[in-house]
Each structure stands twice: as structure tokens, then as C-alpha cells.
Amino acid sequence: MTNSQSIAGQLVAFAADHAGVALKDALAQELREAGAEVIDLGTHGEDSVDYPDYGTAMAHAIADGRAALGVLVCGTGIGISIAANRNPAVRAARCANTTDARLARQHNDANVLALGARTMGVEVARDCLRVFLTTAFEGGRHQRRVDKLTDA
């Protein structure tokens, strides 16, 4: 993973259902190798589990301050992001490419990246994660919109 200097030292939470566990584990390992600290909220195997449980676990980790940023993985990234977004502390963005990941951070101050293990390859997921973690929120005109998300 490139940009390891800006990734080193970051604390990132990960959670996935059974469809996303292999991609979660691969991405988490790459972050560890780049010097990031990883919180693994599960799941830890391929036995069938319910994605809302892991989206909710991520939401709690963000809301209680254990992590400022997170990564969710399920088959499509959709269901698990819906579950996490039920918590007002979470701004989970399901991203399919690096443009999505960059704009989710720049314009929406997304704090959780959601990925689909069945809809993208590991290289695209890795690139999305790198961009997500190394892109800053622009603030400015975007801040009032993000504030409305929090106040909703």
C-alpha cells in the first residue's frame, strides 16, 4: 500500500460479515504492515452471520470514540453501510472506485468506508482504502451540509 507515511499511526476499525471476511482480513493486514493500528470487530470466519450486527458494532466503535475511521465489508457494501448509518455518529459511504472514496472524504467527511467483496477485486478495494485514508475533508461549503447530516 502506498502513502504508508500518512497511513502509519492511524487507528482504523474493521468489520465484515461472512461474505467480506477475506477482504477485510487482507486490507487490515496491509494496514498493519503500513504501520496503522487496527481494531478488528469481526466476523472472523466464513460461517453465515448477519451484516447488521457488524454494521452496528462499527457504529458503536465510531460513536464511543474507539475509532475515528472505519472500514465495513459485506457482499455489496450496501447492507452493512445502511446498518452503520442508522447511528448519527456514522457517515458510511459505499465506494466502488477511488473517485467515490476521494469525494466521500473531501465533500461528505465520511468516516466509514464500505466495500463490496462480491462487486470489486482486492486491488480496487486496496486503492479505495488508500485514497480514503489519505484524503482530508475540505470543509468550507461542505461543512454546513455535513452539519445537517449530524443534526438530522
Automatic annotation (TrEMBL):
Gene Ontology terms for molecular function: intramolecular oxidoreductase activity, interconverting aldoses and ketoses
Entry protein name: Ribose 5-phosphate isomerase B
Gene: rpiB
UniProt source species: Rhodovibrio salinarum
Positions with a binding annotation for D-ribulose 5-phosphate: 17-18, 75-79, 108, 118, 141, 145
Entry similarity comment: Belongs to the LacAB/RpiB family.
Presence of keyword Thylakoid: no
Active-site residue numbers: 74 (proton acceptor), 107 (proton donor)
Keyword annotations: Isomerase
GO process terms (BP): carbohydrate metabolic process
A Pfam family per the record: LacAB_rpiB
Listed InterPro entries: RpiB (IPR004785), RpiB_LacA_LacB (IPR003500), RpiB_LacA_LacB_sf (IPR036569)
Top-rank taxon, per record: Bacteria
